[in-house]
Amino acid sequence: MKTEINVSKLKKSFESIKKEFDDHRLSINENTNEIRDNFEYMNEIDSKINKLSDRIEDICMFIEDLKKEKNSVHSLSWYEQKVFLALYLEHSELSFFEVVKRTQLPAAMVEKILDSLVDKNIPIIVEKVNNQNIYLLDPNFKERQTKENIVKVDESVTKSLFVKDLNSYM
To answer: pLDDT tens for residues 10-60?
Structure first.
């Protein structure tokens, strides 16, 4: 009888241990599934971060290209150089008619050239005063031009402006 009681107690103990092991195993399996799901989610986030990083890098390169293009000045025609030089040599702003007078070019041509200079990244400041456009070469650009010779001006353009100025004094 004692052995029966011991066997019965032993069976109950084993069943209790088995139940605890089963609960523990289930808990481990649930945690394993959660860890696996978290790992997959982390991989998905990492993939998205890498894609964003690639896009940001592309955008940065695009911006750098735009900056280089903005800072680069396309070569100017002879007449464009003449209008540029008239603005560059002036220490104050010039009216449209003063630009025409200094360059001795037709007004319609000067108007097109001023637009063309802006299109070619020459920073010209335009203000409207008394219904008249006033033009000024950006002072920072003017300083850079003095130091770096960004816009190449042909010697014949320079001579044409100075010869006209000398003739006006005679």
So the answer is: 888 888 888 988 888 888 888 888 888 889 999 999 999 999 999 999 998
Residue 68 has pLDDT above 80, yes or no: no
Q: Is beta strand 124-129 parallel, antiparallel or unpaired with respect to 94-95?
A: unpaired
Whether the predicted model's global pTM rises above the 0.70 cut: no
Question: What would the two tokens of residue 159 be?
Answer: 């001579």
Report which of 93, 117, 103, 89 is spatially closest to residue 160, judged by C-alpha positions. 103
| Cβ–Cβ under 8 Å, residues 110 and 84 | no
Neighbours of 102 (CB within 10 A): 20
Structure tokens at 123: 């920073």
| Ordered alpha helix ranges (H), the chain | 2-71, 78-89, 96-103, 107-119, 139-148, 155-169
Length of the chain: 170
Residue 42 tokens, joined: 């982390």
Q: Is 121 helix (H, G, I), strand (E, B) or coil?
A: coil
Structure tokens at 99: 């630009």
